[in-house]
Amino acid sequence: MADALKLQLQFGGGAELLFDKIKKREIELPQLNKYLPDSTDNKWTIRHLLVWIKDNLLRERPELFLQGDSVRPGILVLVNDADWELFGELDYELKNNDIIMFISTLHGG
């Protein structure tokens, strides 16, 4: 089993404002059972990634990014440049070197 899972996270459309205005991050996730010892899963999914993002990266106003255990409506999620709906949304099993992009389509006026 691999020790760490390497991903690139990208934030755009204003979502980066919730993450210290940083649009691109290279991250390494530990083994899932080390981060979430109570989880019965053994592979990282986007659902688990959102928990990690909330705990480690989200700096302000989580209600603008998360709703329940998912992203808020109006946040477009892309997995390797394709809509996450094609991959099972929250249940997509992350793979090494995946690029996960979060784009806000919500804009004030």
TrEMBL record:
Cross-link named Glycyl lysine isopeptide (Gly-Lys) (interchain with K-? in acceptor proteins), sites: 109
Listed GO CC annotations: cytosol
Keywords: Cytoplasm, Isopeptide bond, tRNA processing, Ubl conjugation pathway
GO terms of biological process kind: protein urmylation; tRNA thio-modification; tRNA wobble uridine modification
Subcellular compartments: Cytoplasm
InterPro entries: Beta-grasp_dom_sf (IPR012675), Mopterin_synth/thiamin_S_b (IPR016155), Urm1 (IPR015221)
Post-translational modification: C-terminal thiocarboxylation occurs in 2 steps, it is first acyl-adenylated (-COAMP) via the hesA/moeB/thiF part of the MOCS3/UBA4 homolog, then thiocarboxylated (-COSH) via the rhodanese domain of the MOCS3/UBA4 homolog.
CDD domains for the chain: Ubl_Urm1
Annotated positions of the 1-thioglycine modification: 109
Highest taxon, organism lineage: Eukaryota
Pfam family, one: Urm1
Claim: Acetylation is one of the keywords in the record: no
Pathway given in the UniProt record: tRNA modification; 5-methoxycarbonylmethyl-2-thiouridine-tRNA biosynthesis
Main location: cytoplasm
Function: Acts as a sulfur carrier required for 2-thiolation of mcm(5)S(2)U at tRNA wobble positions of cytosolic tRNA(Lys), tRNA(Glu) and tRNA(Gln). Serves as sulfur donor in tRNA 2-thiolation reaction by being thiocarboxylated (-COSH) at its C-terminus by the MOCS3/UBA4 homolog. The sulfur is then transferred to tRNA to form 2-thiolation of mcm(5)S(2)U. Also acts as a ubiquitin-like protein (UBL) that is covalently conjugated via an isopeptide bond to lysine residues of target proteins.
Family: Belongs to the URM1 family.
Name recorded for this polypeptide: Ubiquitin-related modifier 1 homolog
